[in-house]
């Protein structure tokens, strides 16, 4: 028979078991999160070390040329390459890889509203 005492005892055991399971699950989850956070910090530290302290192989193969304004204007040997149009908007526009001769969706004539009563 279910008496008030046995029902109370059942609820107490259930709450105690649920609390214990919650405690140990939370402990396990927090430990897992701390482990993943430490691994992420280590990964980021390695990435920053590689990124900022070691030059990439692609950067090492490029020549380090410096263009001084005086040598460029005087026709010195440090002239920029003739195909280099960086910084000049007029030349950059002419070097557009896919120039479009169309105007796009622009109307051929401007829109004019119709005069008169709209509701008739």
Inertia-based shape? flat
Distinct helical segment count: 4
Structural class: mainly alpha
What is the chain-wise order of helices and strands?
HHHH
Cα end-to-end separation: 85 Å
Strand content: under 5%
Largest β-sheet summary: none
Kindly report the average pLDDT value. 75
Oligomer: single chain
Whole-angstrom Rg = 37 Å
In percent, how helical is the residue content?
40-55%
Poorly predicted tracts of residues: none
Q: Total strand count, please?
A: 0
Pfam family, one: DUF4748
Biased composition (Polar residues): 62-76
InterPro entries: DUF4748
Region (Disordered): 35-120
The gist of it:
The chain is mainly alpha-helical and 120 residues long. It has helices at residues 4-53, 57-60, 69-73, 89-94.
Describe the structure.
- Keywords: Membrane, Transmembrane, Transmembrane helix.
- This protein has a domain at about 20-50.
- About 55% of the residues lie in helices and about 0% in strands.
- The protein contains four helices and no strands.
- The chain has helices at about 5-55, 55-60, 70-75, 90-95.
- The chain is flat.
- The protein starts with a helix and ends in a 26-residue tail after the last helix.
- The relative contact order is 0.03.
Task: Please tag this protein with its features.
120 residues, mainly alpha
List the helices and strands and how they pair.
Elements: H1 4-53, H2 57-60, H3 69-73, H4 89-94
């Amino acid at each position: 028979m279910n008496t008030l005492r046995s029902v109370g005892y059942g609820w107490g055991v259930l709450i105690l078991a649920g609390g214990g399971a919650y405690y140990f699950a939370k402990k396990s989850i927090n430990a897992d999160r701390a482990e993943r956070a430490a691994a992420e910090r280590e990964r980021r530290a390695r990435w920053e070390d590689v990124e900022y302290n070691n030059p990439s192989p692609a950067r090492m193969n490029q020549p380090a040329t410096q263009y001084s304004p005086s040598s460029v204007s005087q026709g010195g040997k440090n002239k920029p390459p003739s195909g280099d149009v960086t910084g000049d908007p007029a030349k950059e526009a002419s070097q557009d890889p896919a120039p479009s001769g169309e105007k796009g969706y622009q109307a051929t004539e401007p829109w004019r509203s119709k005069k008169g009563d709209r509701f008739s």
